[in-house]
Amino acid sequence: MKKLVIGIDIGGTNTEFGIFDKAGKCYAKNKINTAEYATFDIFFNKLKSEIQIIARSLAFDNKIAGIGIGAPNGNYYKGTIEFATNLRWQGVINVTKKFESEFNVPAVLSNDANAAAYGEMLYGGARNMKNFIVITLGTGLGSGIVVDGRLMFGHDGFAGELGHTIVDLNGRKCGCGRNGCLETYVSATGIKKTAIEFLEKSKTTSILSNIKNISAKDIDYAAKKGDDLAMRVFEYTGKILGIKLSDIVAITSPEAIFLYGGLSNAGQLIFKPVKYWMEHYLLNIFKNKVNILPSQINDSNAAILGAAALIWDKIDKS
Amino acid sequence: MKKLVIGIDIGGTNTEFGIFDKAGKCYAKNKINTAEYATFDIFFNKLKSEIQIIARSLAFDNKIAGIGIGAPNGNYYKGTIEFATNLRWQGVINVTKKFESEFNVPAVLSNDANAAAYGEMLYGGARNMKNFIVITLGTGLGSGIVVDGRLMFGHDGFAGELGHTIVDLNGRKCGCGRNGCLETYVSATGIKKTAIEFLEKSKTTSILSNIKNISAKDIDYAAKKGDDLAMRVFEYTGKILGIKLSDIVAITSPEAIFLYGGLSNAGQLIFKPVKYWMEHYLLNIFKNKVNILPSQINDSNAAILGAAALIWDKIDKS
């Protein structure tokens, strides 16, 4: 009998799910549209039937041993999604309880950045590391912090909210209601705002000047074409992240920091200023010790593979 | 046979040492002047003979099972003191190796803030806590961060350098060579600088106006007498720490933050603004969850008791 697990990544738009073995091999996968379902229960019923469909393709001697779920505002201790602003289902939702009672296997839930960190540790560039950080750069900025081989959840399960550390008390308005959070500068949303601000102040033309609704990809494209304004936008964004990372290193002393998804795909445009400014502001004892690396599981299965990794940790301990 | 341990706190001025049982009871203690000894070896020989003297008073059925040492820039993994600016002995010193070979028992070394955190966990207000932070307010600002019941040392043993997170990139010059570190504002040294700055700008008189070489204690005294300038100095200092703690909570999600030593003795003068401004800038999901507490082992043995606590953890695991 071979043990397999289900990895589920619940996102604001889509929910992806797949079946994996311990080595990270994907046996089957699919996705459904999250936003279509008005309540969690209706969503769950659809998801369950779709999972049952892909599970039919498995060999008879395979057994599903558990379910790992990554979701925004996922609380590891309580197994709940709590007040997730980019999901339609409001309040506190008992997610793992539902999965465990309907599938009769253990389930575990955490936020997508923690799932990414577990994925990096089991299958990616952190396989031999015990202290590292994964920063997910998407619409917002998330982080999973691994301390001595274990994910840091903190007292109430919400540790690692790096995106909501403050860059400027009087800075940009954040979705959390405060001002100047890191993710208002360093994220797809943040870099767009920076580009628009730079364009408004700029006296020279830019490839971006004539684009309506500029996207992070447009800025990436323009910068790679040598557009001065777009390159300055990346420099500015990387500098803000780099300075913040010098603080994070002083607190957690990681071996490496992985940048994952979205903006990290811009390569040296973002890595170069992040590295430069982090080193520049780093306390002496940490200088030239901390690697800034691209995630090594940056493929199309990364999110569900990370979610699957979450449950292997629980299965291995039981 | 009763197991006892030696706790040693190496400070820039004095080195204190004592013998403790697991319950934290002190059997004997003494101190020597650290700064008198030009090399670590001469210091060690004196310390060893003094420890042997106090150990003679112990009952025959007692056994020294280990030695815990707190020291500035103490590296837990390597057992070394590295480039400690407020000790006369420069470079990298192999401390635990020396103690282990000369005393024939296990020894462990960490910085004084980590020792304080272990002390708080074993004997103080954190006895039932798994995620908390101890901030030591002395000449500088140190911190020990406990994650899931274990001290966070990070990749190279230097995690928890909260005193060197940056408040203002263009701020006060710090001993570390950079500008605007937290400890240049929040420490005995920092609050003195603030008082002097405030006095220079002030048009009204203050109790502090006529004091040469103002100390943190003078500011405390003046504030408790209702001196407006001194109270504003505490408010300013507490606000800076409170804002920084809102970031630290978002990263580590502790149950409580303990303030230990020095400035923390000012009581509500410092606790009130720290609490107020931390809550004010805290991300919603953390509001009204994190206690700011005075250390519960704030007596004259606190530092050596914390150092002793470090080695119990190692003895218990072996």
In short:
The first copy, chain A, is α/β, with parallel strands linked by helices and about 325 residues long. Helices cover about 35% and strands about 20% of the residues of chain A.
Descriptive labels:
homodimer; 318 residues; alpha/beta; five-stranded mixed β-sheet; 13 strands; 22% strand; globular
Describe the structure in your own words:
Two copies of one chain form a homodimer. Chain A has 318 residues and is α/β, with parallel strands linked by helices. Chain A has eight helices and 13 strands. Chain A has helices at residues 40-55, 95-103, 112-123, 188-201, 216-224, 228-252, 268-281, 302-317; strands spanning 2-10, 14-20, 26-33, 62-70, 74-75, 80-82, 92-94, 107-110, 132-137, 141-147, 150-151, 256-260, 291-294. Chain A has a five-stranded mixed sheet, with helices on both faces. A five-stranded mixed sheet of chain A has the order 11-10-9-12-13, sandwiched between helices. A three-stranded antiparallel sheet of chain A has the order 5-6-7. In chain A, strand 1 and strand 2 (14-20) form a beta hairpin. Chain A is globular. Chain A starts with a strand and ends with a helix. Chains A and B meet through helix 6 of A and helix 6 of B.
